[in-house]
Design a protein that fits this description.
mainly beta; Jelly Rolls; Hepatocyte Growth Factor; eight-stranded antiparallel sheet
Length: 252
Amino acid sequence: MVRVLLILKCLMSVGTTTQLSVTTTAIDSMLLADTGVFRSEYKSFLFSVKGCRDAHLKLLSHETEVRQYYQVLIGGWGNSMSMLSIIMDGITNVDSSNSSEMDCDVYKQFWISWDQDVIKVGRGNATGDDVFLLYEDRCSFSIKNIQISGGSDWNLDLAKVDWIMYSTPFIHAPVPTGNGYTVNVYKEMFCYTFDELRSVQMPSKVKCGIECAVELSCSGFLYYNDSKLCEMMSYDAFTYTTTAYYRKQLQI
């Protein structure tokens, strides 16, 4: 079972940050939304790990481990490599780093972010700094939960990973314009099947695109010329089966 050193009713608050400490081993896993340190509105997450190797994190598209998700492995292959992967109907490794990131005796701090179609993993407590894993996913999906676990080894001491998770209050920040990110084009591409936001009648594909552009929760759209139906899609991935969309492209 998961050894919870500081369970939900004993969460520590340090300033505006809530902190949760847990230990996982080879057969353990924990869903962070269940503990109160993660919310689906977050676009980044801070944590510290102590262990000899194999700290696993899964960025889930649903509340539990189903369908597609991003997988982050820190200190894999005997603490010689870290890996970022996408899991759909199979596993696709999208970036790796040949470096020793874990320490058996000392906590090392890391961050993960998933915003503007880019997944990043870095060292330290400043999100955006010292990146060692990165992938641009033009079909990115919203993250509903994070699952953590230790490695797989007959020696449970080697498989054990101590975690400290940090949660800060969520502040909603809309997509900026001007010198920041702005929606400037749509690109027709095959993506995962996303949940539908809503359907409306629009006189043209251009009008459908404008309607989607002004709605932050719209990831793209389908337009049917015969019926003039505009289907706007969310960022919530429904299945890994692909569908052709006009997908929002965010560019500086």
